[in-house]
Q: What sequence folds into this?
């Protein structure tokens, strides 16, 4: 579970983070030429993959003639795309459903749907537990929405939580609502086969499958032609991407070749699978961003074994060394879980020392949250008291704050190529954008520049979260 403190400190990154619970966003788009009177409200929780799925869902709804609203009070259909990764992610959704209950009392015609990971995890229990829910739709069933909505409209509760071995939604063009028009996500694969013992994802998103690379490249080309300048290739474990004769390194290359002005990012890499070929491909293309998210989860080999991560502390350290050897300017971030079943103080100290050694540029830190049905929930006892989990979490947050600040300090007086994303949150006089290493940079605007343009910015001030500079 993430504390308020981390949320604040890592806010700029969390916006783009995979598997991160966050307050949902609603979509507004009144441009649908097929527009009927029907209006849909969609709220998304969780990871980048879920936000990407919402763009597929919006596309299916648009074909049905729906337009979109950010005001649930004026909607006919309210869909919540949900996350199950930690207990608090689900709590947020329960809270939202309570809110919808009140709205439905006033507007009994409103159809309410629960989509995504919680739908898959809880299945018909959702219909039983929350009488207001009309539709339950798992992550592989979005094509079935027209039938499910129709049947819900006729008063039947409808559910489809079948997982598929093939579905990648390759032929559905996502509707990019609520974007900055500069950066977009492209889902390159779905599901996960890794079975990390703590993780619910393999159960909610099913088996791993890769999407046809032709459709990925086409989607990236279209985005580029529509003015986008950054794509993030998304998968639970991008290094195991494989479609026909194309592996992940080759896919990266194909997307990078679209234009040197199109930045390519990707997430998430797995320490056991990331290859030298991927690292050399990143090195070869200036537009493949020098930033790798490489979740460690723990710094102790016995805990890693219990987590079924498929590597040891030493293997992980060698991977970090390899990245720094091939890509000296590469930023590295990580995910850490503290308080996993049976984690002793000594084992926790191994995580502390790994973080001190690796000096990650960023980290997403959580305490273990048992998920029903996972291998860890079946095999091990969730025996670290919550207070102790929180103490450990605070300890690593403090270490990471220092690491992030030191990492940013190294950027003082350096000049970076920044892709302008839009106005800074604090002032319309300033732009914000990211450097290659994914660090958010704030700088004063200059006439003639707009989001999507590249500028060189020299950094003259840093905090642990942001770089502040000026255009040179
Ligand atoms: N408890 C806490 N954190 C978890 N994560 C995944 N499952 C759990 C869990 N049960 C974290 C991992 C993963 C990130 C997306 O979420 O660190 O990399
Ligand atoms: Fe979960 Fe592990 Fe797959 Fe990531 S790699 S989604 S942590 S099972």
A:
């Amino acid at each position: 579970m993430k504390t308020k403190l981390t949320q604040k400190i890592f806010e700029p990154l969390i916006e783009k983070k995979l598997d991160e619970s966050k307050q949902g966003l609603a979509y507004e788009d009144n441009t649908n030429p097929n527009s009927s009177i029907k209006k849909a409200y969609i709220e998304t929780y969780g990871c980048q993959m879920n936000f990407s799925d919402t763009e597929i869902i919006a596309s299916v709804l648009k074909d049905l003639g729906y337009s979109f609203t950010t005001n649930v009070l004026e909607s006919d259909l309210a869909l919540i795309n949900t996350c199950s990764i930690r207990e608090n992610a689900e709590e947020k959704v329960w809270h939202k459903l309570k809110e919808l209950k009140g709205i439905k009392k006033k507007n009994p015609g409103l159809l309410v749907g629960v989509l995504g990971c919680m739908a898959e995890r809880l299945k018909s229990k959702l219909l039983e537990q929350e009488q207001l829910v009309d539709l339950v739709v798992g992550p592989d069933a979005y094509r079935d929405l027209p039938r499910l909505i129709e049947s819900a409209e006729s008063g039947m509760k409808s559910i489809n939580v079948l997982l598929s071995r093939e579905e990648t939604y390759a032929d559905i063009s996502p509707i990019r609502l609520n974007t900055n028009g500069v950066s977009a996500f492209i889902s390159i694969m779905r599901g996960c086969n890794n079975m990390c013992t703590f993780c619910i994802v393999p159960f909610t998103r099913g088996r791993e499958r890769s999407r046809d690379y032709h459709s990925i490249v086409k989607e990236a080309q279209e985005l580029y032609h529509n003015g986008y300048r950054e794509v993030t290739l998304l998968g639970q474990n991008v290094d195991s991407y494989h479609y026909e004769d194309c592996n992940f390194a080759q896919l990266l290359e194909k997307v990078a070749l679209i234009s040197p002005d199109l930045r390519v990012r990707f997430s998430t890499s797995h320490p056991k699978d990331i290859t030298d070929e991927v690292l050399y491909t990143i090195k070869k293309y200036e537009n493949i961003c020098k930033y790798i998210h490489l979740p460690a989860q723990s710094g102790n080999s016995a805990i890693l074994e219990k987590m079924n991560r498929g590597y040891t502390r030493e293997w992980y350290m060698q991977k970090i060394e390899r990245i720094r050897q091939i890509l000296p300017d590469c930023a590295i971030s990580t995910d850490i879980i503290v308080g996993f079943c049976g984690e002793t103080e000594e084992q926790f100290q191994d995580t502390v020392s790994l973080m001190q050694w690796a000096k990650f540029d960023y980290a997403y830190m959580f305490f273990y949250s048992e998920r029903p049905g996972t291998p860890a929930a079946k095999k091990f006892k969730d025996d670290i008291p919550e207070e102790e989990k929180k103490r450990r979490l605070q300890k690593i947050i403090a270490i990471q704050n220092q690491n992030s600040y030191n990492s940013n300090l190294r950027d003082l007086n350096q000049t970076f190529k920044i892709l302008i994303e839009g106005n800074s949150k604090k002032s319309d006089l300033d732009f914000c954008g990211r450097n290659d290493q994914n660090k958010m940079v704030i700088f004063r605007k200059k006439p003639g520049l707009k989001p999507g343009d590249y500028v060189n910015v020299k950094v003259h001030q840093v905090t642990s979260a942001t770089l502040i500079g000026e255009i040179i």
User: Anything to note?
Assistant: The chain has a mean pLDDT of 92.
